[in-house]
Amino acid sequence: MTTRALVMTAPGINCDLELAHAFEAAGATVDSLPLMRLIRHPGLIDGFDLIGLPGGFSYGDDIAAGRVLATMLRIHLYPALRAAIERGCPMIAPCNGFQVAVQAGLLPGPETGHAWPESPGAPEVSLAQNTKAIFRDVWTPMEASENTCCVWTRGIDFSGETGMLPSAHGEGRFVAGDDVVSRLQANGQIALRYAQDSNFNGSTDRIAGICDASGLVLGLMPHPERFTRWSQHPRWTRLADEQRSCVPPGLAMFRNAVEQASGVTN
What we know:
The protein is of the alpha/beta class.
């Protein structure tokens, strides 16, 4: 049975091709559909097994990063996206997609054991300006939380030089209150952290990505879709053959999601 992935596009989005390629490399078939078509026909979302909210600068990041697109999702597509999550559809939101997801009410989502609300609530976390107030394009070592429930990062080794992921943002500093961070940690919703001494944007508790309580919805500032083959690694020619014998962590994340959506790991 074919596993279908939806990549949502909108003005200012510029990472949709990379996201589509990552889904395809992991074994899914991909349709990239513009936001306005989905708003006119929200039932189209029902036909997909995976959903991606790509990175970029949606609507020029006017007002605030991701704010315009997030508002449109809250008003027009939240019920369809909520229904997709409830039926077990993995969703990924890198970079600008993460900024959109937290403002659209998709992350961090309801607490464990609670149903998704009928309408999106107020944001509980935010992605603020980097502490040094500059755009950074950098590869950083990552750490996967040991207790995470995230299906995307399940079983992936992010240690060492091969576990790096690329980031490119000016507003990616994860900010949340101590109570929210404690709850996310207790529920296994912290999916990824920047490694020690690699927290270049000043994120609270070095948090790089979080998931909802089901583990299906992942938002993160790094771009795993930009690391699906070893030749994308900044030092790939210097990596030993045994290091390059495994699947790049970016591709491994998408394979996890495709397997989840196809029922292989259910």
